[in-house]
């Protein structure tokens, strides 16, 4: 088996079915399998997959174990020499899997860790596809800049997207988003897959930070030829802005920085982050109860 495609599903029937259809429609000239790891969905996803795609391997969890842990479970039953970790809210639009495979095998001596592509939304606009390693001080800067300049984060994202228009057919990045991560199975095994302590968010950056350390030395490369649409965020059923999403994101953020930073630097960051987030009490998008819950969450981070 050349490639195992692993998709984590959680109540995304309306997304995962088109995702699988796109794989079947466009993938050719390569031996592949599809594995769907279901995190205890309640929307008849499994029934729909069994009916339309009986060839798909299904792993059924009794609870939502999170994104990274679910992918790890899929890797354990995968037969492919290579893995494509694909979000359920993506759509393949050309023979992307074969393109990833050909590139990886062609540059087999190049110490490649992972491949990804420039993701686009349904309107063909470039969306988040890769990034720099997270930084505590850049995070502080971004929060403060967001207070001072309306639309700062949108402008910053626009600058990030501009980098994807490089003239070269591929280029190296710090990390590739977990929405489309093509990697050799033996490389994932070497790094024990995703750290399951990340329920959601930052698990992709953490994995590739470990890949890129001197002890790993693997490259992460963005290709331009594979075409994949990412309906960004659709696989997370919560509203675009919610206290729950923010707290989950920041729980993973704190864990990432604690794991990869010196203790005293991390301690200082925790204190500063709490202070600069106090203006949340003036955020009109949140109810009073939500503000209180969020501030209590930040206070609890000071004790960790």
From TrEMBL:
Q: Which InterPro entries match?
A: Glyco_trans_2-like, Nucleotide-diphossugar_trans
Indicate the segments forming the Glycosyltransferase 2-like domain, all copies. 4-130
Question: Which Pfam family, an example, fits this chain?
Answer: Glycos_transf_2
**Sorted alphabetically, which SUPFAM superfamilies does this protein's record hold?**
Nucleotide-diphospho-sugar transferases (SSF53448)
Q: Record's superkingdom? A: Bacteria
Name it. Answer: Glycosyltransferase 2-like domain-containing protein
